[in-house]
């Protein structure tokens, strides 16, 4: 839940607005985003890491208002597609504070990035180096980072672990065949030979939903020696080191978050130690939190449509959303909680499974949660920690339509994104 959320009778106030009122006014399912919570999370990063660059990872969730909030709070933006890039720039996000990622950026995306003047492009493959070398010019030189695979396994699910070699991102640190240099060293060499590419540093991203500082320290242990080898081979001390994102947030009571203060202290200390050991100037640190900025600021509100008791004793509480607005349980087995809002209940708690409305049995939102035993059609259920990787990953499955997003602040609600309607689908359906 957002830090300032509180119970108010039978309801929950988020940003001073009762979730039941949001549901009544905007319909369900509906996503609610607490502006103050997003802003405060940005500020917490700036306080904990005052000398570092903090880029919000737009893939967690992006719309014009969120771009504006993080920009005003002094964060940069990590984008991973031409779409995210164009949206941010058209919303006035300064291009020089944008970092472009991606293992397979198209030539058009790279051209747009160079033309718009993005601050950094994180280079992820050899073909990309060749493409960028042609796109950059005397008038349009491009600052780049090399994405390195540090050989560190971390993250909540195999699908999001990007720190080891057998996955698609980045350049390996392992030596090449018959004594050849590693792909990472080769990438650095090639970029440094390109007159219009300016190599400003190294990047890595380990994975997502990491609650422990140790993997980040292990990554530093691999990256700083690479900085030293770049200095030895080319006589240049790269000024930046980007440790990516992946900072964990709790989805249910008692789950750990990455402790930001501890992370900041441990990472800066280890970086200084390693740099002094290798006689390197300390590079400027960058981080790219996505989930930790918007995740806990969001709440999903659903209406119960049916309740069914299986012969085996399970209670299925089916709501009006599901895997089309939150695919995370189906994709990663992610666990959530749900709370009855909008009415009082004295009924004892009983275990229930909150399921969606989609046409497959795996459409489960919350596999197991204690709800009042009298939960019934018409009730509202709130699912917290819904601000990251829900709407950004929402789909058009079953033509249900993606829910609207409502920002709440100081007791007022305003719609940031409207509900997707059948007309939206019809407009794309031009074949007949
Ligand atoms: N930087 C890079 C290069 C990334 O690839 C990512 C996430 C981030 C930063 C931000 O990670 P965060 O701080 O949000 O964990 N859909 C998955 C998460 C995929 C993350 C992909 N990359 C999920 O719902 O768990």
UniProtKB/TrEMBL annotation:
Reported cofactor(s): pyridoxal 5'-phosphate
Binding of pyridoxal 5'-phosphate, residues: 246, 288-291, 389
UniProt KW keywords: Amino-acid biosynthesis, Decarboxylase, Lyase, Lysine biosynthesis, Pyridoxal phosphate
Keyword Amino-acid biosynthesis: yes
Domain of life: Bacteria
Family matches, as SUPFAM superfamilies: Alanine racemase C-terminal domain-like, PLP-binding barrel
Pathway: Amino-acid biosynthesis; L-lysine biosynthesis via DAP pathway; L-lysine from DL-2,6-diaminopimelate: step 1/1
Domain Orn/DAP/Arg decarboxylase 2 N-terminal stretches: 36-294
Enzyme Commission identifier(s): 4.1.1.20
Binding site for substrate: 291, 328, 332, 360, 389
Example of a GO MF term: diaminopimelate decarboxylase activity
N6-(pyridoxal phosphate)lysine: residues carrying this PTM: 59
Catalytic activity from the UniProt record: meso-2,6-diaminopimelate + H(+) = L-lysine + CO2
InterPro entries: Ala_racemase/Decarboxylase_C (IPR009006), DAP_deCOOHase_LysA (IPR002986), De-COase2_N (IPR022644), De-COase2_pyr-phos_BS (IPR022653), Orn/DAP/Arg_de-COase (IPR000183), PLP-binding_barrel (IPR029066)
Gene3D superfamilies: Alanine racemase, Lyase, Ornithine Decarboxylase, Chain A, domain 1
NCBIfam families, A to Z: lysA
Record text on subunit structure and interactions: Homodimer.
Function statement: Specifically catalyzes the decarboxylation of meso-diaminopimelate (meso-DAP) to L-lysine.
Recorded family membership: Belongs to the Orn/Lys/Arg decarboxylase class-II family. LysA subfamily.
UniProt protein name: Diaminopimelate decarboxylase
Source organism (scientific name): Streptacidiphilus cavernicola
Gene symbol of the encoding locus: lysA
């Amino acid at each position: 839940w957002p830090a300032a959320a509180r119970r108010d009778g039978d309801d929950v106030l988020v940003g001073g607005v009762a979730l039941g009122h949001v549901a009544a006014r905007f319909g369900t399912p509906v996503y609610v985003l607490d502006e103050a919570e997003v802003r405060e999370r940005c500020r917490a990063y700036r306080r904990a890491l005052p000398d570092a660059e903090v880029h919000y990872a737009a893939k967690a969730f992006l719309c014009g208002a969120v771009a504006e909030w993080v920009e005003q709070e002094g964060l940069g933006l990590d984008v991973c597609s031409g779409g995210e890039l164009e949206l941010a720039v058209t919303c006035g996000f300064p291009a020089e504070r944008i970092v472009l990622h991606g293992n397979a950026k198209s030539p058009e995306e790279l051209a747009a990035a160079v033309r718009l003047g993005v601050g950094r492009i994180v280079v992820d493959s050899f073909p990309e180096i060749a493409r960028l070398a042609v796109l950059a010019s005397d008038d349009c030189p491009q600052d780049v980072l090399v994405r390195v695979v540090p050989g560190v396994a971390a993250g909540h699910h195999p699908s999001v672990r990007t720190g080891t070699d057998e996955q698609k991102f980045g350049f390996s640190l392992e030596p090449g065949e018959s004594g050849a240099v590693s792909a990472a060293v080769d990438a650095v060499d090639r970029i440094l030979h390109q007159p219009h590419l300016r190599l400003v540093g190294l990047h890595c991203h380990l994975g997502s939903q990491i609650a422990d500082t140790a993997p980040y320290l292990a990554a530093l242990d691999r990256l700083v020696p690479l900085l030293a080898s770049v200095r030895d081979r080319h006589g240049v001390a790269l000024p930046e080191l980007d440790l990516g994102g992946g900072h964990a947030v709790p989805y249910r009571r008692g789950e750990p978050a990455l402790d930001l203060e501890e992370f900041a202290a441990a990472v800066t200390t280890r970086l200084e130690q390693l740099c002094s050991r290798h006689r390197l100037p300390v590079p400027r640190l960058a981080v790219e939190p996505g989930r930790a900025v918007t995740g806990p600021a969001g709440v999903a509100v659903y209406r119960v449509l049916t309740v069914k008791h299986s012969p085996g004793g399970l209670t299925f509480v089916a709501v009006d959303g599901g895997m089309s607005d939150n695919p995370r349980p189906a994709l990663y087995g992610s666990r959530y909680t749900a709370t009855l809002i909008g009415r009082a209940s004295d009924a004892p708690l009983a275990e229930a499974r909150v399921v969606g409305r989609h046409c497959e049995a795996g459409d489960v939102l919350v596999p197991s949660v204690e709800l009042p035993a009298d939960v019934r059609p018409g009730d509202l259920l709130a699912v917290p920690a819904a601000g990251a990787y829900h709407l950004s990953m929402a789909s058009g499955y079953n033509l249900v339509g993606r829910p609207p997003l409502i920002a709440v602040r100081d007791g007022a609600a305003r719609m940031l994104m409207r509900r997707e309607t059948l007309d939206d689908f019809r407009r794309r359906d031009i074949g007949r």
